[in-house]
Design a protein that fits this description.
Blueprint: E1 3-7, E2 12-19, E3 22-29, H1 35-48, E4 58-62, H2 68-85, E5 89-92, H3 94-102, E6 110-116, E7 121-129, E8 135-136, E9 142-145, H4 146-153, E10 159-164, H5 168-173, E11 180-185
Parallel strand pairs: 1-4, 4-5, 6-10, 10-11
Antiparallel strand pairs: 1-2, 2-3, 6-7, 7-8, 7-9
């Protein structure tokens, strides 16, 4: 199946195309999401995998949480492409993508995912790796304060944390936290493919980004 994926919930904006066992991945780093650059990366990824956009059969994207502007821009692109070519769409949690990236890094069934929610808050989730490799925990995604984070993790002897790479203040505030192993990364478009469940198609009109809010 020929799949196009886009992820732009952080400063890393990335595009990937999977076609006939070939995968192309391109990205740029910026605080501003550039639509023209994204479209150019799509074109180059298609060329790398020797397919055209007309060959794409499925669109997938990182639906957040993270940068409001980045997520909104990608949702707009995905909706436009889906409407234009009448393609099915699947949205995947950006925090779940990060958990997937860390799956081979940590020999643990329990992984905490942390992203910068600004204003001294965190996007936080508790993901579990099942014996069959499935990653579950999307329902635990929420906004918390640093105090809440310390309260949640206080009794954990070992804390395996996947951290948004740019979240420097988190590292400073948790430097004395015992039993804390941190892996810093960004969610990437190329890591979405293995998380896609083909039965979870959405119509382009009901694509839902994940803007977590502090309740």
């Amino acid at each position: 199946m020929n799949i196009l994926s886009i992820e732009s919930s952080t400063r890393m904006c990335s595009v990937s195309v999977s076609s006939k066992e070939r995968v192309s991945f391109r990205y740029f780093m910026s605080k501003k999401t550039d639509i023209k650059k994204i479209l150019l990366m799509i074109e180059k990824c298609c060329k790398d995998t020797e397919c055209t956009f007309n060959d794409i059969q499925l669109l997938v994207f990182g639906r957040g949480p993270g940068s409001f502007t980045g997520i909104r821009t990608v949702v707009g692109i995905i909706q436009g492409l889906a409407f234009w070519k009448k393609l099915p769409v699947i949205g995947v949690s950006s925090m779940r993508i990060m958990a997937k990236i860390s799956q081979k890094k940590f020999n643990s069934k329990n992984i905490l995912v942390v992203m910068d929610a600004k204003n001294d808050n965190l996007y936080f989730a508790e993901y579990k790796i099942k014996d069959n490799g499935d990653i579950i925990g999307e329902k635990t995604e929420r906004v918390i304060s640093f105090n809440e984070f310390f309260s949640i993790t206080y009794k954990m002897k070992e804390k395996f944390i996947v951290l948004e790479k740019d979240f420097h203040s988190f590292v400073k505030k948790t430097k004395n936290l015992e039993g804390c192993l941190i892996y810093r990364t960004f969610p990437k478009a190329k890591n979405i493919f293995s998380l896609v469940k083909l039965k979870n198609f959405s119509n382009f009109e009901i694509i839902k980004p994940n803007y977590l809010e502090n309740n």
